[in-house]
Amino acid sequence: MYRQGDVLIVPVAEGDVPSCSAVPRDRQGRMVLARGEATGHAHVIGGPGLQLLADVDDPSSMFVDVPSYGRVTHEEHGPISLPAGHYRVVRQREYIPGSFRPVAD
After folding, report:
1. How do residues 21-69 score in pLDDT, each as one tens digit?
2. Taking a C-beta distance cutoff of 8 angstroms, is the pair 79, 52 a contact?
3. Is residue 96 part of a domain?
4. Tally of CA atoms within 13 A in the half-sphere of 73 that contains its CB
5. Where are the beta strands (DSSP E) in the chain?
6. Between 68 and 94, residue with greater pLDDT
7. Is residue 47 a part of any domain in this protein?
8. 92 to each of 7, 29, 95, how far by Cα in Å?
9. Residues whose CB is less than 8 angstroms from the CB of residue 70 and which lie 6 or more positions away in sequence, other chains included
10. Residue 102 falls inside a structural domain
């Protein structure tokens, strides 16, 4: 399990990845796991052949397919190396009266 700020990356079995489609890259060609609302900074993942995927039934649920290795970077955090595997991306949430929302950084 890997954590970078408000993003948690959890290894999962390949069979636990639902039917997904590729998440479009941002305007800079990056694969963004999460973007800070206040700072504009982003948790970005990359690696050879790596795919960022979203559940077709729940686009807010993201997964990563890492065929050889990956690297997660952010302007304010140290980089994280990921070994080959399948991962689920979880955004930290906070409770506000009556609901939950992603943590804003």
Report:
1. 999 999 999 999 998 877 789 999 999 999 999 998 887 899 999 999 9
2. no
3. no
4. 7
5. 2-4, 7-12, 20-22, 31-35, 42-46, 51-55, 62-74, 77-91, 93-96, 99-102
6. 68
7. yes
8. 6, 25, 10
9. 45, 46, 47, 50, 64, 81, 82
10. no
